[in-house]
Amino acid sequence: MANITTQQLADLIIGIARAQQAIVEGMESMKAGFKTTHFAPSLDNAARTRVTTRPLTLQEFPARVLLQCLGRGGPKVEQVARDLEALLAGQSPTAAAAAPATPAAPGGAAPSLDMT
Q1: d(CA 104, CA 85)
Q2: pLDDT at 70 over 70
Q3: Is residue 88 within a helix (H) or strand (E), and if so which, with residue range?
């Protein structure tokens, strides 16, 4: 079995989120209001964006990536990889963002997926 890197896993998670985004956009084009009425509340539940008392876990991570895909800019692979690395190391992504292991990109680091 091949060893997968954090960067490859981040690419895979973003690719899956983009495929899910395409399905949501298709549903929205068939039934206007689907995204805001039905999908957004369910995705917020899965991402647990309103729960501020516990740290981000790997279970919520893919839903948060999908939330970013649905936004204007979309997720950055480098930031997703950093947040994933922090989660796999047992840290919260906000703590990892405060002390990045890699140099920050020009113009500052991208925001973390931790939406608390």
Answers
A1: 15
A2: yes
A3: helix 77-88
